[in-house]
Structure formats: C-alpha cells, structure tokens
Specification:
Blueprint (H helix, E strand, L loop, with lengths): L21 E2 L5 E5 L7 H4 L7 H12 L20 E5 L12 H16 L6 E5 L1 H13 L16 E4 L2 E6 L4 H6 L4 H17 L1
Parallel strand pairs: 2-3, 2-4, 4-6
Antiparallel strand pairs: 1-3, 5-6
C-alpha cells in the first residue's frame, strides 16, 4: 500500500511498516482501533494520524481534554495525549481496509503486551466491532475473561472483563460520520463516560 500513493501525497515517503501504539504510558484509558489507514497511519507512521477518521477522533479527544490539540497531521506535530493510549488490533495496513483473521491473530500479541505495560489501565474503548472482538481476544490471551456469555458489541455498551471495563463505540470512519451513524456528541459522550469510569475505578 505504501507504493500506491495518493496524488496529494506523491512527494512524501510513506511509513509502510507496522504502526505501534502511542500515548501516555501512565494512561488509565486505552483506545483501540481497527488498523492503520492506507494513506493515514500507513503514511505517517502513527495510528489515526493524517486521515479523516483521525480528524474526527482527535477533535473529540481535544474537546474531552484527552489531548493538547484538536488535529494531528504527522508524528512530529506536537500532539500529546493525556491519560490516554491509542493502539490498533492490526498493525499494518490491510489491503482494501479489510483485515483477515490471520492478520488479526498475528498482531494480537502486541495489543496483549501493550495492555500489560499500562499499569494504570482501567477502561478500554473499542472503536467498532472488529476492535471490540480484538480487545476481547487480547484480554483473554492476557488471562482476563468476563463472566457469562461473550459480550456483544454495540455503541455505548459496557462489559466488565477482569479488572477492566470494555466500552464500545462506532468507529469514526467516513462511512459512519458522513451518514450520521456516529456524531461528534455521540463520540464525546463515550469518551467522557470512559473518563468518569477511569477516575472512579
């Protein structure tokens, strides 16, 4: 995907490698996405950075006090996350933006390790059903599982998994934001709820 550049970015060198998570190492909230976008994280080397989904997400993070600025265009743009770490289930840009179960399984150990390296983590926000499923799998691999049947994804759904609370939100994809399936107040509400739960757990 790093070889098939958009005309707007033809002069840029794409990252074109696995994209790590980033953020506050003392975070009590983890935000989990699907995978790097072909011309976003795959280009910039930072998840959600430089694409429309990220524009929508970072504006919300700023409104909720979880970042120091409302936009992010490249890795050196000064963005700092507050009490928040951001990662993805799949670490490389999947062809057609559709990761396979094999890609998910190959990358899950990285998410499991990141969860284990966040000592203050309390709340995990999964952006979309794929991230919800990946977060549950990563938690199970780390020895954490919830009681009863496996919780199903939904916007605003909450599930207790071991010492963590898993929350669901629709993904800030253009398909969701342009159609109104996910609005700015909806995403803000989930993030503010995550902050409230993280501060009381």
């Amino acid at each position: 995907m790093a070889r098939e550049k958009r005309p707007a970015f033809v002069g840029q060198e794409y990252w074109g490698r696995p994209v790590p998570g980033f953020g506050d190492p003392a975070a009590s909230i983890l935000l989990v996405g699907l995978a790097p976008a072909a011309h976003g994280g795959n280009r910039t080397g930072r998840i959600f950075t430089g694409d429309r989904s990220g524009d929508f997400l970072f504006a919300s993070l700023f409104r909720c006090g979880l970042s120091n600025q409302p936009t992010s265009s490249h890795r050196g743009d000064g963005l700092r996350l507050r009490n928040l770490y951001v990662a993805a289930v799949v670490r490389c840009c999947p062809p057609g933006n559709r990761p396979t179960p094999g890609e998910r399984n190959n990358c899950l150990p990285y998410l499991t390790r990141e969860i284990g390296l966040l000592p203050r983590l309390r709340v995990i926000v999964a952006l979309g059903a794929f991230a919800w499923d990946g977060a549950l799998r990563a938690l199970a691999a780390g020895g954490h599982s919830g009681p009863g049947p496996r919780p199903r994804f939904g916007h605003g759904v909450e599930a207790s998994i071991g010492p963590f609370l898993l929350m669901g939100s629709f993904h800030p994809s253009q398909q969701n934001t342009f159609t109104g399936k996910l609005t700015a107040p909806m995403l803000d509400s989930v993030l503010r709820r995550a902050q409230s739960l993280a501060s009381t757990s």
